[in-house]
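Re: the request from the purification team.
They wanted to know what the chain is likely to look like in 3D before they choose a buffer screen. I agreed to run a prediction and write the result into the notebook, where they can find it.
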Amino acid sequence: MDNTTPLRDIPVKNKATPLPSFLMSLMRAREFALVVMIVLIGLALHLITGRFFTTPNLSAISLGFATSAVMILGMTAALVSGGFDLSVGSVFAMGGVITGVALQAELPIPIAMLSGLVGGILTGFVSGLLITKVQINPFITTLGMLGIARGISLAITEGRPLANFPEEFLIYGQGKFLEIPNLILIALFIILLGDLLMRRSAWFRQIYYVGGNEEAARLSGINVDRVKIAVYTLSAMLAALAGVLSASRFTVADPGTAVGEELRIIAACIIGGCSLRGGKGTVIGGLFGLIFVGFINNGMILLRVPVYWQQLVMGVVLLLAVGFDTVSQRWQTRSRAKKTS
């Protein structure tokens, strides 16, 4: 990288910008506001049902979104870079299926798990190459990979779930350390490490500059193509890892699993503060967004809301999150124009 132009001189969208006072406060404290909303939703659901803040229910919620939390880092990086990854649900299934096939072929467990991750890595790498070198839109590229990864999973298994895995493999998804499920510990480790790297690591900070102003980042010496390829590779690798962990938890690798999971992850990241225009977002914010979505889903289950209405509610939540992001971006643009005029 050319050291003559410091990275701090490149415009980044997650810096403070003039906004109406109430929105400015909300944007500055987005993560805090989410925590408050999560607590209020939890309290309301507990008052209504009397079962929300119980150990079994909270444990079920945590385990329910643990594998999704593994994918938050990759999706946050993709959104911050100015793109997104629609293929994570299918890569999730593919990672589990490849690992399942390797286990049934009696390969060593580490090799079997690594094979699932390699499948994800190759998928993300190809997506990154198509986006950067062939200049195919991220939406079309990852939508195509969604179909390819799902097709590979279905072709390998002929549409049948794989089961009968070794007991040693199940420890990752079912075991505990100090009475805390290993799955939750793995997810928290990835989230905390990812958040630290996104905030402090010079290389990961380049993702913000690429998403904030790609041309300025390129002129400063940042290898934009390399950053984008790495982002999509990371996203797919973590999606495959989530699929491997899911197979370990449920003792089955289902080629039809995680359909629509990409929308849940994107919604969580946007609720947590990521922008569809890039340059803004945190991993911790994405985790809080996922908890918010998980609380809503669990609340609807406790209230016995039909599954069809659950899908409708989640669609409304996604639209509201995207709408809020769009409106806030417009206000920021207008505020900048007024300040410079």
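For the purification team: The chain has one domain: 26-335.
Please add any questions underneath this entry.
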